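quick one before i forget lol
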Amino acid sequence: MAEDFLSLLKKICEGDVSAWQTFNTLFHQHNLTMDVQIQAFSYIKQMAKGNVYAMYAQALFYDEGIGAKQDPEMALILMREAAGLGHTAATFEVGRRFLYGIGIAQNYQHALQWLTRAAESPHYYPAAMFHIGLIYGKGWGVAMDQAKAKAWMDKATAKGYLTHE
């Protein structure tokens, strides 16, 4: 692997979101050969053994099918494990998957639990706040409550979350 590419992978394993975005863009623009994808996956998988950021990255690799067969169920397993170790983005993603039934049966109560953990974590997650607002605003598994929906949407906006709705 080229030194710049290895540096990018190391940054992903340090939790650098922009490094993941760069890598994911390269993948989606078809700028990564299968050999490079497999090498990257192997590196991330090895690093995931003691690193929650790499564990979450490995989940994303499975989710996207980067260097491994696309496997949303395995992605969810790894996300739940990373979430259990305190990774806020993983906690949000587990909640989002329960909300929309991605890789698991849709379950609004579980979605609300996971999203609330992410929203109220010390590293608050504005997207989780927004999705909680959706749950209350649409009455998904809870009594519809426009006041709670607005309060959560306002929290998300105050933390910088922008929507196109």
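fyi The two ends are 42 Å apart (CA to CA).
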